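cron nightly-structures :: item 1 of 1
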Amino acid sequence: MNILIISPHLDDETLGCGGTILKYSKKDNIDLLLATKPSNRDHHKKNKKLIESIKVDYNLKNVISLDLETMSLTFSNLNFLIDKIRYLNKKNKYDIIFTPYLYDVHTDHQIITHSVIIALKNFRKENKSKIYFYETLSETNFSTNPFKPNTYIDISKEFKKKIQILRKFKSEIGSHPFPRSVKSVEALAILRGSESNTRYAESFYLYNDNSDIL
């Protein structure tokens, strides 16, 4: 399968679906679309090294960076984002697309996923992608529109490596009770595991199934 992971900021993909990426990348082609870049020049240099590192960690086929400014996305960016997503999907014919929850409290997340929905309307015959929303700690769990998953992926074998990758995001990960902490990530994985009869799991909301796969 061809899979696209859409990450508004570097670390969202690890928080939301790091275990799933590790699981699927063993046999499938996975691209990462990274929407934003840090505004600080030093952070930008560090990010380039971090991107190279996680590309290897996740065995990604491609990392596509749009280099938009963090915290500055508005609906004026929609046309650019829609065109880019349509182009990538037409070129690579993704079977599955993972994107943030539409009602996350971070507007960057909302605008990115809004663009995905517009770009991949299910009445267009060329669109055969399943679209899944993933949950991002510190954004999804503070939404006034609660995340209600309908899909679970067992990441029991991948969880340890997910945490190893997560620890690379030193500036984004804090100590408990900070929302983006290792303890919080483990607690969520345990909760989703208990809901799906596994040790650790990641959960998703299947928004749109355009595929012919049964």
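cron nightly-structures :: done
The mean pLDDT is 90.
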